[in-house]
Write a structure and sequence with these properties.
With 351 residues, the protein is α+β, with helices and mostly antiparallel strands. It has 7 helices and 22 strands. It has 2 domains: 206 residues, Alpha-Beta Complex (Spore Coat Polysaccharide Biosynthesis Protein SpsA, Chain A), CATH 3.90.550; 137 residues, Jelly Rolls. The strands form 5 sheets. The chain has a 7-stranded mixed β-sheet.
Length: 351
C-alpha cells in the first residue's frame, strides 16, 4: 500500500498562552475534526498514514495520541521551528529504518481551521505546495506544506538552515524561504492571495482570530509605553512578532484609501516621534505618503530620504499638533504597489 507522512508540530494544548503580546488558549481538540477532514481524508485516501508529532507536554497528551495515533511523538519545550525539524527528522528515520517511501509529505499545525477544500485542481502532487505568498514578495505562508516524498531530505535541510537562508527577507525566518524553495523545487501556490496571514481566506488560525478585538480593529499597542492603542486602515495589515517588531503592509496593489496605521494624540502641543524602519520598498513623495496629522491636514515626508532600503533606519520627526484628539498615522495610500515595512522602538513624546 502507498504511504504518506503527516507532520504535526507546534503547541497542541496550553491554556492562557502568552503569544504575540496577548493571551490565547490553545486546544487541538477544537480543530481535530477539520484537520482530519481536510488533511487526512484527502491526502490519506487509500493510503497508509504515518503521523509524526513534535509538541509540548500536557495533561491531555494521551488524548492527542489517541486522536492522531502517531508513529513517533516527541515532547519538547523548544520553539516551533526546532519542533518541525524534529518531526521531519523522525519521518526520515522511520522511512530509512523500514525501507519505505512516502508518496506525499504533508505538514500542518494544531490550531488551524481550513476553509479551503484541497483537490486535484489546487494541489499539484509533483510540486511543493504552499498556500500563498504573503503581503511582501519575499514572504510566504508557513502553516501548510505538501510535497512528494522525494523532496523530504532537501526540505529538511532547508528548514535546518532557515535562520541563515530566511533572515535576509524576514526576521520570522521561515516566512523568508520563498526564493530558496523556488530555486530548489517546483512550487505551486494553492490559493495565492498575496496578503497577510490574517487576511487569507483559505484558513484561519486561533491567535489571528483572537487578535481582532472589534470592528474598528483597535488593538493593544505592543510597545506598552506611552501609546495606548494603535488603529489600522481597512487596506492594511499589522502583525506583532515575538521579536518586538511590528510588521505593516498595504494589502492592495493599486493606490487606495485605508493603507495606514497610527495613534490618537489626546493633547495638542509639540511632539517628537522616533522609530526604526526597515523596508525594501523605495518611498517617493506622493499624495498621502508619509507621516500625517489630520486637524489640520499635514503630511511630513522629508524623513523618507533618510530611509535606506534593506536595513534599519533611525527616524526622528518633530510634530506640531494643533488640536486635541488628532490622529497621527504612517500612511501609504498613494504608494503605487504593495508595501511592506517593519517598525520597532516607536516612541511619541511631548516636548
Amino acid at each position: 500500500m502507498n504511504q504518506i507522512a503527516v507532520i504535526l508540530s507546534g503547541l497542541h494544548y496550553k491554556p492562557k498562552h502568552n503569544s504575540f503580546f496577548f493571551t490565547k488558549d490553545i486546544d487541538f481538540r477544537l480543530h481535530e475534526t477539520n484537520i482530519k477532514e481536510k488533511i487526512f481524508n484527502y491526502f490519506g485516501k487509500d493510503k497508509k498514514i504515518n503521523t509524526f508529532i513534535a509538541t509540548n507536554d500536557s495533561p491531555i497528551l494521551d488524548e492527542l495520541k489517541k486522536t492522531y495515533d502517531p508513529v513517533k511523538l516527541i515532547t519538547t519545550d523548544k520553539p516551533r521551528n526546532p519542533k518541525l525539524c524534529m518531526a521531519l527528522k523522525s519521518a526520515i528515520d522511520y522511512r530509512d529504518e523500514n525501507k519505505i517511501e512516502y508518496d506525499m509529505v504533508v505538514f500542518t499545525r494544531f490550531d488551524i481551521m481550513y476553509n479551503i477544500t484541497f483537490n486535484e485542481n489546487n494541489i499539484k502532487k509533483d510540486k511543493l505546495n504552499i498556500i500563498s505568498v504573503l503581503e511582501y514578495d519575499a514572504v510566504i505562508c508557513d502553516n501548510f506544506y505538501a510535497f512528494p516524498g522525494k523532496f523530504l531530505d532537501k526540505f529538511y535541510e532547508i528548514y535546518m538552515n532557515a535562520h541563515e537562508l530566511g533572515r535576509k527577507y524576514c526576521s520570522i525566518v521561515q516566512h523568508g524561504l520563498r526564493y530558496i524553495f523556488e530555486q530548489t523545487f517546483p512550487v505551486n501556490y494553492v490559493l495565492n492571495e498575496r496578503r497577510g496571514v490574517g487576511g487569507l481566506s483559505s484558513y484561519k488560525i486561533n491567535f489571528i482570530e483572537n487578535k481582532k478585538s472589534n470592528g474598528k480593529q483597535l488593538i493593544d499597542n505592543f510597545e506598552k509605553k506611552n501609546l495606548c492603542h494603535y488603529n489600522i486602515g481597512k487596506n492594511s495589515y499589522v502583525f506583532n512578532g515575538n521579536d518586538g517588531i511590528m510588521y505593516f503592509s498595504k494589502t492592495v496593489k493599486d493606490k487606495c484609501p485605508g493603507a495606514w496605521f497610527g495613534y490618537r494624540l489626546k493633547e495638542a502641543g509639540k511632539y517628537e516621534m522616533s522609530f526604526e524602519i526597515m523596508t525594501e520598498c523605495k518611498m517617493k513623495r506622493a499624495f498621502n505618503v508619509g507621516i500625517k496629522l489630520h486637524n489640520p491636514s499635514i503630511v511630513y515626508d522629508d524623513f523618507m530620504k533618510d530611509i535606506k532600503c534593506g536595513e534599519w533606519s533611525n527616524i526622528k520627526i518633530e510634530l506640531d499638533v494643533k488640536n486635541n484628539n488628532d490622529l497621527l498615522i504612517f500612511i501609504v495610500d498613494g504608494y503605487d504597489g504593495y508595501y511592506f515595512a517593519r517598525f520597532k522602538n516607536i516612541m511619541i513624546k511631548k516636548i
